[in-house]
Design goal:
Radius of gyration: 19 Å
CATH class of the largest domain: Alpha Beta
Number of helices: 7
Shape: globular
CATH topology of the largest domain: D-amino Acid Aminotransferase, Chain A, domain 2
Number of domains: 2
Length: 286
C-alpha cells in the first residue's frame, strides 16, 4: 500500500526493504509485532500498543533500537504518501542477526521495522457476522507466559486458522490445555450469558488485546459489568450472543460456532455504539 518502509531509522523503498536470512525473527520467530489502526494521520490507542511492545521487549530481553519519538516520526514519514483514509501500521521488532542456533548470544543489534498495509473501511451496517470453528488439533499451553506477549511466533494461530478455513469457517476458536476458551486465532472473545457479558481471563492464555480493553471501557461507560470467565466452548455454543474483537476491525459478530447457530444479543448494538464513541475520543495524532 505504501511504497515506503522505515527500517532501523532509515526510510527505504518497499522494494528494497530486506532482512538477512540470518535474522532471528525470520529463523525462529524471535521478535514481537504490533498492528495499529491508522486513520487520516491518527492512531488508535497508541499508548497501549507502545506499552505492550515495551513490555514484550522487556520480557524477551530485546532492546528497542529507537525511542518513542523516533518511531512516531517514522510512522508519519511512511504514511505521508497514503491516498486513503484508513490503513494499518505494523511495528516489527526482531532480536536481529546472530550466530546459528537457538542461543541469543551474539545477537547484539536488534532491528525495528515499520510498514503500512491496506485496511478497508468498516461497512455502514458494521462488519458482517462470521462463522467460528473450535480448534481441537492445536491448543494453547495453560499458564504459558508467552501468551501475554504478541510474539512473532504465531505458528499455532496460523495452523488453527488454516484448519478452520479448510472446513469453510472464517476463524478458529482456541482452547488451552485445560479445555477452556482463550481467544480466536487473531482476536479476543466475548459472549453473552443470561444477559451478562463475559470474556476469558488473560490467565487462560488470552492476549490482552487493545480493542478488548476498549470494549471493557465501553461497557463501563454503559454501566455494565464484564465477567472474566474460564469457560469450555459448550458455554459459548449455548450463549445468547458471541463476538470477537480485532485491532483492525473492532467488534465482529459471530453467527455460528461449529454447527451451532449463535443468536444476536439486542444489547450488542448499544455496546457497538459506545465502543465507537470511545474510539472517537481516543484517536491520537501521530
Amino acid at each position: 500500500m505504501s511504497e515506503l518502509v522505515w527500517m532501523d531509522g532509515r526510510i527505504v523503498p518497499a522494494t528494497e526493504a530486506m532482512v538477512p536470512v540470518s535474522d532471528r525473527s525470520f529463523l525462529y520467530g524471535d521478535g514481537l509485532f504490533e498492528s495499529l489502526p491508522w486513520d487520516s494521520g491518527r492512531l488508535f490507542r497508541w499508548r497501549a500498543h507502545w506499552d505492550r511492545l515495551k513490555a514484550g521487549a522487556a520480557f524477551l530481553k530485546i532492546r528497542i533500537p529507537a525511542d518513542e519519538a523516533e518511531v512516531r516520526a517514522g510512522i508519519r514519514a511512511i504514511t505521508i504518501p497514503l491516498t486513503t483514509a484508513q490503513a494499518t501500521v505494523r511495528l516489527h521488532l526482531s532480536r536481529g542477526v546472530g550466530p546459528r542456533g537457538y542461543s541469543p548470544r551474539g545477537a547484539e543489534t536488534p532491528r525495528l521495522i515499520l510498514t503500512v498495509h491496506p485496511a478497508p473501511p468498516m461497512p455502514p451496517a458494521g462488519w458482517p457476522a462470521i462463522r467460528l470453528k473450535t480448534c481441537r488439533a492445536f491448543t494453547v499451553a495453560a499458564g504459558d507466559p508467552l501468551a501475554a506477549h504478541k510474539s512473532a511466533n504465531k505458528l499455532l494461530n496460523v495452523l488453527a486458522r488454516a484448519e478452520a478455513e479448510a472446513e469453510g469457517f472464517d476463524d478458529a476458536l482456541l482452547l488451552n490445555t485445560d479445555g477452556v476458551v482463550t481467544e480466536s486465532s487473531s482476536g479476543n472473545v466475548f459472549w453473552w450469558e443470561a444477559g451478562h457479558l463475559h470474556t476469558p481471563p488473560l490467565s487462560a492464555g488470552a492476549l490482552g488485546g487493545v480493542t478488548r480493553g476498549a470494549v471493557l471501557d465501553a461497557a463501563h461507560d454503559l454501566g455494565w459489568s464484564v465477567t472474566e470467565t474460564a469457560a469450555p466452548p459448550a458455554r459459548l455454543s449455548a450463549s445468547g450472543g458471541l463476538f470477537l474483537t480485532f485491532s483492525t476491525r473492532g467488534l465482529v459478530p459471530v453467527e455460528a460456532l461449529d454447527d451451532h447457530p449463535v443468536p444476536t444479543e439486542p444489547r450488542q448494538s448499544p455496546l457497538q455504539e459506545a465502543f465507537l464513541r470511545r474510539c472517537e475520543q481516543e484517536w491520537e495524532l501521530i
